[in-house]
Amino acid sequence: MSDSLITKKALAGSIKQLMETVPLAKISIQNIVDNCGLNRKTFYYHFKDKFDLVNWIYYREVSERIDDYKHYENWVDGTYRILTYISENKSFYVNAQNTHGQNSFEEYFSKFCFEIVMGAINELSVDMNVSEHDKKFVADFYIRAFVSITIDWIKHGMKDSPKSIVDGIRNIIEGSMPDALMKYQNSGCA
């Protein structure tokens, strides 16, 4: 592991530890570096601000858990892995979810889900004549539903297990995504 990655992980661990008890809005760069024994210069060498660090955590930790689960046939396993990871890092994600505006968890999660859902839609529609506009419309519908369900789950303390959330989503999505794309085939709707 490179020194840069070791430093980034130390800073990530520090902010995650702080976010267990302190809202992100009240955490300073100085708090982060003091907590892990680094200096501000080192922080700014790797990240432009605390939101950049938080986004790095989102990207690094979530995507490395689902790299092999970005296809329609295994999205259930990927979704379960994401929700399990979020549940295991509950304090961080509850706190991050409460930070709104630019660089919010919801904004990041929506972009992240877009890549996954569009991958599945492109796979499903490979032999269909569905416009890019219509594919994006269908993707947006599923993304908004999934992100909204996930945000509500986080807001309400993650009381349901990741498995029960995934089972509920699977009951709705399996079959409906291919059917939705079939309705848009050659239609030019939306």
Task: Give a quick rundown of the structure.
With 190 residues, the protein is mainly α. 26% of the residues are buried. The chain is built from ten helices and no strands.
Structural notes for this entry:
The chain has 190 residues and is mainly α. It folds into two domains: 47 residues, Orthogonal Bundle (Arc Repressor Mutant, subunit A); 126 residues, Tetracycline Repressor, domain 2. It is built from ten helices and no strands. It is elongated.
Instruction: Count helical runs.
Output: 10
The quaternary organization reads as: single chain
Would you report the number of β strands?
0
CATH architecture of the largest domain: Orthogonal Bundle
Total domain count: 2
Shape: elongated
If you consult CATH, what is the topology of the largest domain?
Tetracycline Repressor, domain 2
Kindly list the characteristics that best describe this protein.
190 residues, mainly alpha, Arc Repressor Mutant, subunit A, Tetracycline Repressor, domain 2, 2 domains, 10 helices, 71% helix, 0% strand
What order do the helices and strands come in, and which of them pair?
Layout: H1 3-18, H2 29-36, H3 40-46, H4 50-66, H5 75-88, H6 90-97, H7 105-124, H8 132-155, H9 162-173, H10 176-184
Helix pairs in contact: 1-2, 1-4, 4-5, 4-7, 5-9, 7-8, 8-10
